[in-house]
Amino acid sequence: MGANAQTSVPVFTAGQILTAQQQTEINTGIPVFATTVTRDAAFGGAGEKALAEGQFAYIEATNITQYYDGAAWQSVGTSGFTFITGTTFSAVSSVSLPTDTFTSTYDNYRMIFQITGMSSAATITMRMRASGTDNSTSNYYNAFTGLANDGTTLTRTSNGGTSFAICQIENFGNPHFVDLNIYNPKIASQTNIGGLSFTQSGGATSTMSGGGNQAQSTAFDSLSIITSTGTITGKYRIYGYANS
Using CA atoms, how far apart are residues 159 and 156, in angstroms rounded to an integer? Predict the structure, then answer.
């Protein structure tokens, strides 16, 4: 939690003497919160300001400024498509998105995942996460199909598997790109994954597309990317689709 983060938005009374911390919070301007959880808990309690239309907040976990429109929190300066989080990684067997990547602010998300280096050919899969833990039960269903530049048909399926396949890489010397949508991960019901496309560039070009779901009725807040063997290097970007 950063130096400006707070856990409540207090209501002051006439003549009240403010503490140093309270003056720091006032001088910050827009209230700063570690996550959307602490944001939601900061309003409406004893001695706290009632949440109302026009309230602003800054969320450290996602580096986003939000405003309350009277019904829900919305992100400032967006046009239907908002950057949530992203990073680069190097020579790892798996990479996990931050907890609270998926929140009640957005129903649906888009992930763009790029692999720039691999230690060996592998299948790349993902698992949904809840409260920092990978969900590895047998509830992943998916299928994708595609075509290699030599005309070979490529397929990959999972019927109640322990993870969701997002690409199958045979020639690991070329860059690879995965683009997919994640629908309603924060709702405690089936999470659908669609619009999946995978492109392998370079001398052994191939492309694949597909989708599927995680059938467990769980509200997920993140996900992990896993390689079946060896290590991967690359980066990911997560975006939220505005609800209105």
Answer: 10
* pLDDT band at residue 199 using 50, 70 and 90 as cut-offs: confident
Vertex 82: Cα angle to 67 and 227 (nearest 5): 135
Domain edge (last residue) among 75, 97, 121:
75
Same domain, 57 and 92: no
Contacts (Cβ under 8 Å, ≥6 apart) of 14: none
| pTM recorded for the entire structure | 0.69
SS3 108: strand
Q: Residue 8, by phi and psi: left (phi above 0), alpha (psi -120 to 50) or beta?
A: beta
Whose CA is closest to 239, among 80, 23, 40? 80
Cβ-in-10-Å burial (0-12, 13-18, 19+) of 30 comes to: middle
CA nearest to 94, candidates 205, 194, 3, 225: 225
Provide CB contacts within 8 A for 21, sequence distance 6+: none
Q: How far apart are CA 8 and CA 26, in angstroms?
A: 12
Burial of residue 173 (CB within 10 Å: 0-12, 13-18, 19+) is exposed
Domain count, the chain: 2
Q: Is the pLDDT of residue 148 over 80?
A: no
Q: Give the tens place of pLDDT for each residue, 61-105.
A: 878 899 999 988 888 865 578 889 999 999 999 999 999 999 988
CATH, residue 204: 2.60.120
